[in-house]
Write a structure and sequence with these properties.
The protein folds into 6 domains: 3-158, no CATH class; 163-209, no CATH class; 214-352 and 448-483, no CATH class; 354-426, no CATH class; 492-598, no CATH class; 633-677. The strands form 4 sheets. The protein has a 7-stranded mixed β-sheet, sandwiched between helices. A 5-stranded antiparallel β-sheet has the order 4-8-7-6-5. The protein has a 4-stranded antiparallel β-sheet with strand order 16-17-18-19, with helices on one face. It is of the alpha+beta class and 678 residues long. Helix 11 packs antiparallel against helix 12 (371-382) and helix 22 (617-630) runs antiparallel to helix 23 (634-677). It contains 23 helices and 19 strands.
């Protein structure tokens, strides 16, 4: 075979073009041909010297294109043991056995489908004459969408825990450092989750199979310099502060560009909480929180306040709205602070305001004590009754336990419109009424902050926590977009429609509503000129629970309205609406019952402006690998030590030059800070 057909891996050119995967996957090439332009004709007949070279090539190609690889057919010579035929396929090759798809007696919910008979493969064969492996077949077509570039690090075949990282995790575990914290360190050192090469679950699994931080002094000037440095790579970062009469930092608010993008998609409901004082100066830390299309917590911004007065809360709300280009939320949830309530009335007049149930439950426990009283109070809080029904429940509780003169009880009755389901029903709060959201925020802060941290420590810590939350979102996007649900209800077409529209977590809620259709009885159907009215009730329940659902079928966009108000309250179609869809033989959910914020396409009209990672992750991983190899022999250790001694002064000089530039930049920030303080 012609020597020109030899494919040397040293000639494969890995070029980072800093382009998003899609129509521009041009970040890897070989022999001048970009991977996304590579055709079967370009590769069939080419030779690899070893199986390892062929495998390395195909794994690099797969990662660049955005698919997982699975090792498939392998044949070896019975005489020599040499591999003669090797095949690698896309992990979506084949399909799940029908017996696993149709078994309706499963105890657990079936796993999502990840195989769709994908034909993509690479096959090589050994030729004794040339002592090489020749490409016999190379299929580039897929039966599914390829993953996005920012998700490619989650593909299983491209993840592995190197021995060097495994040894590091073992060492840290021996000195009582948790594995989760070790992983956070690896992420920080690699320059982001995408550069580590494996997930935290991979690390846990690797440790199990083997049987098993820079703290800097800082103050207000340093904290502002840190934010100034962030602004150099994030041009949309927003940061404003105020000073007190002693020219000291009073209030500080900041948010980055991704928070602005998140708010543009999910800023309809805002959680405003200021219960944390985990810093050296005992300044209240305010979190501006929301929920995304996966029902996960997202952060819109942070603030450090000098106090908790009406004036201070008004200032921080003003800064928040300014940073979000004037967009106001349609509803807000707070911890019940009175000064905060008045500031909201000033800055967001008429905005529906709900009190956080986690704080109410905590205060109830402190004031009521008795478990029986607490149980009755929870009924008043969560029972879906009319305002008249609420008053009956409340009066029964007060009379039964003699709470007429209880100050806290009287105060809570005055605020009932802000916490009782009877009065809040009909307002959209993005499902943020439960205790879990505030508990999640508590964990969010406690995981990263300790008592007495300085401002310069606080802000980078919050950045790391924010990175963790955002990586969770990428993983959720990946799971939602790269697998399909096993359909389990009788309304398969509607369930399939919901599966294609909504993210996983929201889909599960919608499927629960579809399941409830079997427990409904349609007692009457009234037909009008442009609509039909369905009267439904629950099986074995009397007419007290009847629900009225109207189908406006003559409109250009058919519309369904229901008296249960589930869509208005939570943004998902109710079981009564699905009952109408069944009667009307609909195969897809009407667009009028699809709230975009819950869909997979919730962020389709925006583009992330996250600054590109500048950390040379490949170099860092190479250093880690070389250190591991050198540590295995005395000779290797000596060689590495001598080379590092030569390299150290060179790197110190480079670092010195960089520090001089950084000091000049920070000095400018401090001078500006002091000028504004006068």
């Amino acid at each position: 075979m012609d020597a020109s057909n030899k494919l040397q891996m040293s000639e494969v050119n890995f070029q980072d073009q800093n382009q998003e995967r899609g129509s521009e996957k041009n970040h890897l090439e070989y022999f001048g041909i970009m991977f996304d332009k590579l055709s079967p004709e370009d590769l069939i007949g080419k030779e690899f010297e070893t199986i390892e070279e062929a495998e390395t090539f195909y794994f690099a190609y797969a990662k660049a294109m955005g698919f997982d690889v699975r090792k498939d057919d392998k044949r070896s010579s019975t005489r020599t043991g040499r591999v003669t035929i090797r095949k690698w396929v896309c992990s979506a090759q084949g399909k799940r056995s029908e017996k696993y798809m149709n078994n309706n007696n499963k105890v657990c919910m079936p796993k999502k489908v990840t195989r769709w008979n994908c034909p993509c493969l690479l096959k090589v064969r050994y030729f004794k004459e040339t002592n090489s492996y020749v490409v016999m077949n190379f299929i580039i077509d897929h039966s599914h969408d390829l993953v996005q570039k920012h998700e490619s690090h989650l593909l299983q075949s491209h993840r592995s825990v190197p021995n060097s990282q495994l040894e590091l995790a073992k060492s840290m575990r021996r000195v009582s450092i948790k594995t989760c914290h070790t992983y956070e360190y690896m992420v920080d050192r690699a320059g982001g989750f995408a550069n580590v090469g494996f997930t935290i679950k991979d690390l846990y699994n690797k440790l199990d199979s083997s049987r098993r931080e820079i703290i800097l002094e800082g103050d207000a000037e340093a904290a502002l310099a840190y934010l100034k440095g962030k602004a150099a790579t994030d041009t949309n970062l927003f940061c404003k502060y105020s000073i007190d009469e002693n020219n000291r930092l009073a209030n500080l608010f900041w948010r980055d560009s991704n928070s602005l993008l998140d708010y543009s998609c999910f800023g309809d409901v805002l959680v405003f909480d200021s219960t944390y004082k985990t810093n050296y100066y005992e300044k209240p830390l305010v979190l501006f929180v929301g929920t995304n299309n996966h029902l996960s917590t997202i952060i819109f911004g942070f603030a450090l306040l000098v106090d908790e007065t009406i004036e201070t809360y008004t200032w921080v709300l003003q800064m928040f709205l300014e940073s979000m280009e004037g967009k106001k939320p349609i509803a807000i949830l707070t911890d019940g602070d009175e000064a905060m309530r008045k500031a909201i009335e000033i800055m967001l007049p008429g905005c529906p305001h709900r009190l956080c149930t986690w704080h109410i439950a905590k205060n109830a426990q402190s004031n009521l004590h008795d478990p029986e009283i607490l149980s009755e109070f929870r009924r008043c809080m969560f029972d879906e009754v009319t305002p008249f029904g609420f008053d009956q429940l409340w009066n029964d509780m007060v009379n039964k336990f003699g709470l007429h003169e209880k100050t806290w009880v009287k105060m809570m009755y005055e605020k009932r419109h802000k916490w009782a389901e009877a009065f809040i029903s009909g307002h959209f709060f993005a499902r943020m009424r439960s205790t879990q959201r505030c508990e999640g925020m508590n964990n969010f802060v406690k995981d990263y902050l300790g008592n007495g941290v300085k401002l310069f420590e606080l802000i980078p810590s919050l950045d790391r926590a924010l990175a963790r939350l955002r990586n969770n979102v990428i993983e959720e996007d990946f799971r939602s977009n790269n697998s399909t649900h096993v359909l389990t209800t009788q309304l398969r077409q509607l369930e399939k429609s919901a599966s294609s529209i909504f993210t996983d977590n929201v889909f599960h809620l919608v499927r629960e509503e579809i399941d409830k259709v079997g427990g409904l009885i349609t007692s009457r159907i009234m037909r009008f000129r442009s609509s039909r009215v369905y009267i439904t009730s629950r099986y074995n329940n009397n007419e007290e629970y009847e629900c009225t659902t109207v189908y406006h079928y003559r409109e250009s966009n058919p519309r369904i309205e229901c008296s249960c108000k589930l869509f208005e309250c939570e943004g998902i179609p109710c079981c009564h609406s699905f009952n109408i869809m069944k009667h009307e033989r609909m195969r897809e959910i009407p667009t009028s019952l699809v709230m975009k914020r819950w869909t997979k396409l919730a962020k389709s009209e925006i583009q992330s402006t996250v600054p590109k990672e500048n950390v040379p992750s490949e170099a860092l991983q190479l250093v880690s690998k070389v250190s591991y190899l050198a540590s295995k022999t005395r000779k290797g250790t000596d060689i590495l030590k001598n080379e590092l001694i030569k390299l150290e002064p060179v790197l110190e000089e480079i670092l010195k030059q960089e520090k001089e530039i950084r000091v000049i930049s920070q000095t400018v920030v401090i001078i500006l800070y002091k000028i504004q303080s006068r």
